[in-house]
UniProtKB/TrEMBL annotation:
Transmembrane segment boundaries: 12-31, 43-64, 71-90, 96-115, 127-150, 156-177, 202-223, 243-260, 267-285, 291-311, 323-348, 354-377
Domain PAC positions: 453-496
Domain of life of the organism encoding this protein: Bacteria
Pfam families linked to this entry: MFS_1, PAS_9
PROSITE patterns cross-referenced by the UniProt entry: MFS (PS50850), PAC (PS50113), PAS (PS50112)
Family classification: Belongs to the major facilitator superfamily. Nitrate/nitrite porter (TC 2.A.1.8) family.
Localization of this protein: Cell membrane
Recorded topology in the membrane: Multi-pass membrane protein
Protein name listed in UniProt: MFS transporter, NNP family, nitrate/nitrite transporter
Length: 496
């Protein structure tokens, strides 16, 4: 029962952590009525919680493997009590920045669940499980919608203090229902970092999450005030629209994980970044509220699905270093939410519009699309290369003129010819002279007509020894039907 409780418990922990994480951005329009700050300072106040929320994710993943999710969640929520209270009595910009910095712990707890929960499920379900857990970012929507409503009736200071009670409840919930016997992994941090930092896929996944989750965080922080200032919406309406954006992204996160469990993850990411490219381009033209909504919803859909897919990919490629790899990728996603609001605000103060910022997002998304396409075909080639190297069957590939392009280790073992001796030669170097010209003419006639030949054939090894093989030859054609390559696969059947 205790193990079954971990997914709902840890998901609710993330809900609470994210609710606390975005207190300032959700209530800033109320706070600025009492604490006078500029637009640039307001951007810093909303962005600062993202700093610690991002950077702490790296050690959080490692510490979860060391001490377990129960301990990490309890300590995180205990520590959060202090900045929440500090913000509730703030009366200056400095107070907001200091308190906001430590609110970042609420965002950092994300790394705890994605490291802990896969221990309880088979790897075929990791995408969906991490997607369910990631749906805990609905906490940002709850705060974005509910906090302004409560603040409108009781004031922002009282609203912030309510979160202290919520944190207290979940400290107790983790104490009683958290798994005390979670499997621990004690691998030195530096050793884990050294084992992953040279792998380019770690940094590519970090880039992808920088865009998908970063956009989610950035829009969560940026939308409430933008909708009030730019379109003249009231605070509650802006909060409701922001909550809708968050809810859609959150709902689609487990959908993205589910899709990644069943289909090719990289193909799904191609659609995600194509959508980001078009949507950001649309937003760069500062459209009406209707078209702006379409652009934002497209970002929400792509972000939700993309977030789910990426945390299916990370444990697939980094099974033994999941804690540190999850932490690094999650940290980059958090930082993806830190920079855009600051950049957008700075650009707006310089140019009077946000076009350049959204255009930059469009171009980064386009570059990511190209990278994902490259990764997809690179993985297919890598898989083909592994098959070529590890199969016990001899394999030979020639061009359409019959010149040998490549052979595999099994070919060398069966024939005695090295790759260097073989490449550039003609397959007739193996000829045993036991077959007539008519035999070979029929072989090529069938290859030309059907693109396929299979049968027994005698060949000769480098040492002059004859051997009988079962040979299959396929003609590999391009889209126009022209033969590009011939691939031969054979096994020795002399004893049979």
């Amino acid at each position: 029962m205790n193990k079954k409780a971990q997914l709902p418990l840890q998901t609710m922990n993330l809900v609470v952590g994210f609710m606390v994480w975005v207190i300032l951005s959700s209530l800033l329009s109320f706070i600025t009525e009492d604490i006078q700050i500029t637009a640039q300072e307001a951007a810093w106040v909303t962005a600062v919680p993202v700093i610690l929320g991002s950077l702490l994710r790296i050690p959080m993943g490692y510490l979860t493997n060391l001490f377990g999710a129960r301990v990490l969640f309890m300590i995180s929520f205990l520590v959060l009590l202090f900045p929440v209270y500090f913000i509730s009595v703030a009366d200056s910009l400095a107070d907001l920045l200091i308190g906001g910095l430590f609110l970042g712990i609420g965002g950092a707890v994300f790394s705890v669940g994605v490291t802990s929960l896969p221990k309880y499920y088979e790897k075929e379900r990791h995408g969906f499980v991490n997607g369910i857990y990631g749906a805990g970012n609905i906490g940002t929507a709850i705060t974005a919608f509910a906090a302004p409503v409560i603040a409108g009736k009781f004031g922002w200071s009282f609203t912030v203090q309510l979160y202290m009670g919520l944190l207290g409840i979940f400290i107790l919930a983790n104490f009683f229902f958290g798994d005390k016997k979670e499997v621990k992994v004690n691998t030195p941090l530096l050793k884990q970092i050294k084992s992953v930092y040279r792998n380019e896929k770690l940094w590519l996944f970090s880039l992808f999450y920088f865009i998908t989750f970063g956009s989610f965080v950035a829009f969560t922080v940026y939308l409430p005030n933008f909708l009030v200032d730019h379109f003249g919406l009231d605070q509650v309406d802006a909060g409701l629209r922001t909550a809708g954006f968050i809810a859609l992204t959150t709902f689609l996160r487990p959908v993205g994980g589910w899709l990644a469990d069943r289909f090719q993850s990289l193909i799904i990411l191609m659609y995600v970044f194509a959508g980001f490219t078009v949507a950001a381009l649309l937003l760069s033209f500062a459209p009406s509220i209707g078209l702006y909504t379409v652009g934002c919803l497209t970002i929400a859909i792509g972000g939700g699905i993309g977030n789910g897919v990426i945390f299916k990919l990370v444990p697939m490629y980094f099974q033994k270093q999941a804690g540190i790899a999850n932490g690094i990728v999650a940290a980059m996603g958090g930082l993806g939410g830190f920079f855009p609001p600051l950049i957008l605000t700075s650009l707006y103060s310089l140019t009077g519009h946000y076009a350049i910022g959204f255009m930059a997002l469009s171009q980064i998304a386009l570059a990511s699309l190209v990278i994902v396409i490259w990764m997809y075909y690179h993985d297919k080639l890598a898989l083909s290369d592994q098959v070529l190297k590890n199969t016990p069957l001899g394999m030979m590939v020639t061009d359409n003129k019959g010149k040998i392009i490549t052979v595999n280790p099994a070919f060398t073992k069966l024939t005695g010819y090295t790759q260097k001796e073989t490449i550039g030669n003609n397959p007739n170097m193996l000829s045993s002279n036991k077959h007539t010209n008519e035999f070979y003419d029929k072989m090529w006639e069938r290859l030309d007509k059907e693109g396929f030949w299979q049968g027994e054939i005698w060949n000769k090894r480098k040492n002059g020894e004859y051997f009988l093989e079962w040979l299959t030859i396929n003609a590999i054609k391009d889209e126009s039907g022209e033969v590009m390559r011939y691939a031969g696969v054979f096994s020795e059947i002399s004893e049979k």
